[in-house]
Design brief:
With about 160 residues, this protein is an alpha/beta fold. It has six helices and five strands, in the order E-H-E-H-H-E-H-E-H-H-E. Strands 3-2-1-4-5 form a five-stranded parallel beta sheet, with helices on both faces.
Length: about 160
């Protein structure tokens, strides 16, 4: 059995990983940790689709280097998150995927690709405006999933904000 565990690399990942670890032990399952990252052209000033817009950045190489640095940091973080699970004897792999803006679809695609039997994902307590403007990755996964989805309620600490 395989369980795909979607994490966002914030302090809240610990709660999600604790639940996923308990499930993996109880079900003798393999965990696939997944972090979906994206490049948002409107935030970076770099349009990855047309390769034309550089905003206020005179050198596109600076943008590419910055994005590459962020990807390296995120890759290291997700690998680090998988280590304690492996130390507990849980078969665990970590994966960083580029999902553009639709993280929910990327999570579902990866769950299908890995033939996962279940998805574990955290739910954040966003306000009404944030949900309307940004949507919810966990809601998108839950609405479209064809397999069981375990939602782990997570509370972000005010110190992390």
């Amino acid at each position: 059995m395989k369980i795909l565990v979607a994490v966002d690399l914030h302090d809240t990942s610990d709660a999600i990983l604790n639940h996923a670890g308990m499930l993996a032990k109880a079900l003798n399952a393999r965990l696939i940790l997944l972090h979906v990252t994206d490049i948002r052209p409107e935030l970076t000033g770099y349009d990855i689709v047309s390769d034309e817009s550089f905003g206020n950045f005179p050198d596109p190489q600076l943008i590419r280097d910055s994005i590459a640095d962020r990807f390296r940091e995120e890759h290291l973080k997700i690998q680090t998150l998988s280590e304690p699970l492996r130390e507990q004897g849980i078969d665990c792999t970590a994966q960083l995927m580029h999902g553009m803006a639709n993280h929910a679809q990327c999570i579902l695609d990866q769950a299908a690709k890995h033939e996962a039997s279940m998805i574990v994902i955290g739910t954040h307590r966003k306000g009404v405006v944030a949900r309307l403007l940004l949507g919810s990755t966990s809601a998108g996964v839950l609405q479209q999933a064809t397999m069981p989805v375990v939602l782990v309620p997570v509370i972000e600490s005010t110190a992390a904000a």
